[in-house]
Amino acid sequence: MSTSPTLAPASSSSRIDYAGQLNEEQLQAVDAAAGPVMVIAGAGSGKTRTLTFRVARMLERGVLPENLLLLTFTNKAAREMSRRVKELVGSFVDVERILGGTFHHVAHTLLRRHASALGYSERFTVLDREDARDLMVSCLAERKLKSDRRIPRPELMLELVSLATNLQQSLSDVLVDRRPLFVPMAPEVFVTATRYRQRKAQLHLMDFDDLLLNLKRLLVEQPAVRAELAERFHSVLVDEYQDTNKLQGELVDLLAGERGDLTVVGDDCQSIYSFRGAHFANIIDFPERHPGCAVFTLTRNYRSTPEVLQLANAVISRNERQFPKVLTAQRAPGPRPEVVPALDAADQARWVVERITALREGGLPLEAMAVLYRAHNHSLELQLELARRSIPFRVRSGVRFFEQPHVKDVLAHLRLVNNPGDELAFKRVVRAVPGVGPTTAEHLWTSLRALPEGLPLGEGLVRDEVQSHLSRKSRPAFERFAGLMGRMGRPGAVADPGGLIEEVLSGGYAQALAAEATPEDGREEDLRQLAAFARRFEDLPRFLSELALVAEFAAKEALGAEAAGDVLTLSTVHQAKGLEWRAVFVLWLVDGRFPMSQAARTAEEEEEERRLFYVATTRARDALALVYPLSVLPREGERILLRPSRFLEELPAGEGAPYERLTLASTEAVRAGPSLGSDGPVALVSPEED
């Protein structure tokens, strides 16, 4: 897929000891001659170091800093690279003259100078998210839609427009491919999106996506500007290239121009963000788009033990579309990864917490450990078990499962069934009724409390003295809410808390989520899993009592427990990319959960799910445990057997297996686990990022 790399002659007067600070693979990539260069940097192989030294090498060869363009995915990453380059080259080069930053930062900088070529004032305004939403609200209001005409909410309209821009697709294609729920609304979507674009142009406004789109327009439609930028940027370097979307990929090629001195660094095996618009073809087809490009592969991994890498290599070897590579460890051997079956989700959580406790008692701090999962709702049982054991933890999304707004909405319904006198729960639930704000909610509550004691809630909600506070427009939705609470309050309903959650979903909440949610946000699936979890409890009071324990534990942590620093990390795999821990646990490795059913419908999607599993395994430095439940307990009370993840079944078996398979999770297995102890400071972010 590549030509033989061409190396430029090394300077004999170099101030930097490249050979002493880089391994052979890194040195070859750093020394590569000008031209299209792709560096495939395996996990933990020193990607950032290699890119930094290549910039320094270019400066030593005489490339002026103002002729370099460095594109990254965070401005922080660009600043860090500039700092490292400055340390390498010293004061003989003004590194601050390098234009570096995110795609949006670079586009904004260039458009400030050339916006007039596109008909914009050079004093155009960049809309933040809130401003963009306000403008979209205004565009929707102009339509004056009849009550029977539905259209996505402003946030969803903005997302549809953004996807069309970044994927370089028509709105029609985006609706069909990504948001089929909104296809019947297509005419209104098209008209509103067109009006949004018109208003931005009239008012000299650009949202974040416009920055990239208009930079592309400059490069395509304005030959003079394109020539000026080609003369300015002799060399273009791109970090995390596997995460670029279609529009960003086109911008990279346009900015490199005919000169073609382009260096991209990334790892095809860590391309996991297609749901955000990342375009896998950018990296995998790079050699085809740039004939004669040199491809360098970094395979020396400085993070993980040979045992962890043996398993990770076995995982990713099953993908067909990739640049083949085998990561080799630069560290001493350690314990073999463990594949751990558990009876059910509760046993899975107990086993993980027992092992974490054992490692902690053996000297490994909590901050050196992480539990990873495919979706946020997979941590439900674990969060409860950690709270029971008073083990402090942080969730990398920033929001614990039971603190998410949609979870609290549904639980408020259950709290109201359990205690009709729960004022806070009532007001939270009733404010979701269209037309009911804080004042109306207060009046409703006052009238409800004035009714005869002992009157069922469902009956009280339909009384005239309560509904007299409602507008005519609010009454139909409020009556549906009253009917829902009546059904939830029927005799015996409290014996099935999971069924009550399903009642809320079928009573309109799932439909409300579908009208405003994206398939990726998983809120309805969160609630389905919450219902399954609730079925483990004998009745509603016991279920709510357990959740109160979690809330109390979270409150205590907020008062300072987490400030002590030693906390366990819980994270989805997507949010863990680029990080590392000494011990990593991966949960819910069953088909349907990991890989996730709705994310693995095609061969391409399954390969991305496998890349995601690969990313999970390569977060571990020393110890890796892959855990899965053998069964779930549905409402009917009969266990349903689960199939282990196909990614586990693909691993070699027998004597050559890259793992140790434990018997059913047990305390004995926990205590027999690896003793890692402490090896000094723990780096949560790898010094040699992926």
TrEMBL record:
EC number(s) in its UniProt entry? 5.6.2.4
Q: Which Gene3D superfamilies match?
A: 1.10.10.160, P-loop containing nucleotide triphosphate hydrolases, PCRA, domain 4
UvrD-like helicase ATP-binding domain ranges (all copies): 20-305
Q: Enumerate the residues binding ATP.
A: A41, G42, A43, G44, S45, G46, K47, T48
The answer to keyword Membrane applying to this record is no
Q: So which domain of life are we looking at?
A: Bacteria
Q: Which InterPro entries match?
A: DExx_box_DNA_helicase_dom_sf, DNA_helicase_UvrD-like_C, DNA_helicase_UvrD/REP, P-loop_NTPase, UvrD-like_ATP-bd
**SUPFAM superfamilies assigned:** P-loop containing nucleoside triphosphate hydrolases (SSF52540)
Report the catalytic activity: ATP + H2O = ADP + phosphate + H(+); Couples ATP hydrolysis with the unwinding of duplex DNA by translocating in the 3'-5' direction
**Keyword Nucleotide-binding belongs to the record:** yes
| Residues covered by the UvrD-like helicase C-terminal domain | 306-578
- Gene Ontology CC terms: cytosol
* BP terms from Gene Ontology: recombinational repair
Q: Name one Pfam family in it.
A: UvrD-helicase
Q: Where is this region: Disordered?
A: 670-690
**Molecular function GO labels:** 3'-5' DNA helicase activity; ATP binding; ATP hydrolysis activity; DNA binding
Q: Which UniProt keywords apply?
A: ATP-binding, Helicase, Hydrolase, Isomerase, Nucleotide-binding
Protein family membership: Belongs to the helicase family. UvrD subfamily.
Kindly provide the name given to this protein in its UniProt entry: DNA 3'-5' helicase
Query: What is the species of this protein?
Result: Myxococcus stipitatus (strain DSM 14675 / JCM 12634 / Mx s8)
